[in-house]
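Example record used in the benchmark description.
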Amino acid sequence: MEKAINSSYLAVSNLKKKPFRTAALLIVIALTSAVLLGSLIFTSSLKSGITGIQSRLGADLMIVPEGSEQKMESLLLYGTPNYFYMDNNIEEIVRAVEGVQTTTSQIYLATLTESCCDFPVQIIGFNPQSDFIVKNWAKNRFNKEAVGEVLFAGCNVNIEKKSVRFFGQHHKVLAKLAKSGSGMDNVIYADLDTLEKIYFDAKQKGFGFFTGDDIRSKASVVFVKLYDGANADSSALKIRRAIEENSDQKVQIIQGEKLVSGLMKKLSAILVFLYAICILVLVISFMTLSVVFSLSINERLKEFSILRVLGASHSTLRGIVFTEAALLGSGGAVTGSFLSLLIILPFNVLISDKIGLPFAMSGSVQLVIFALIVFALSLAACLLSSIFSAVRISKFEPFGEVK
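Model output (structure tokens):
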């Protein structure tokens, strides 16, 4: 059966006839697509990471011992294990301050690398009765009936047989928490009874976190939620004065909103760089394709002359050029997107650790949307870069004469 000779057939035949040129163009388009998709994923994941911190934090103010602000931020953002303490009576003082709706405290224990992880683990003790952070994070998981220990594991913590081992003792894990894209994905949350057991196990192994045995009298951080309409700056000032009047403890007050806004400023600088790279890559790709299509037309004047003599219309010649561009754009976009996902998906945790900013990997639906956007952009760039050549060839007449 004879094949119909049409624009598509001629376009495919020409691409096959010039394998090196076709391969070079596919590589250019694939690299462009890979950069574009990678940038979209990277940008979205950074924004999701910062949004994750904001939603998981759930507090307007955080009170930590003086000199511990950087350690606290390092723990929140990167999961760097730290432990620092103040007297737990600070929470009672803060709770009585005007404008404070509720408070809850947490206490931190840092461990060595354990069986659950390839990195040091932060154990955080929380009070289930006053907590408004972990319970909101765990959502429905927290409502399940738990007998005995209450432990929640961050999504990066490897749980085998629903248990973890700390200082030689095994502890059951109630559930893993949803991914936040922050350092909180590398921690274990334990209720105070369980934390007490872990603390005494640590002491028997020779690890001392503070003097004394009453772990419930200590706190590492007090989270504060303000009433709607309460000003964070004025509330922080009131809290500081109340603590100075009722305790000799020196503290620092971190505002959640300022912490997030600081991250957004860092992110803005990165986004400007990413957008600039994307525009530069698109421009270079567009110019390269335009030049190659133009040179290709010059090489094929004889071919197009023969087609015109055989009765091919101007629209047919234009169709050949556009079909070649569409095939190159589609093939390059699919290849580039595949390579980009092949690099980013397996190493997203490593990327999160190295960039020094919260990073929550985009979901499958977002990835599909981004891939479709990149496909459309790559295809449009190829078609636009071939317009000049298509217009030129549409004026072509037999024997190479141009109107």
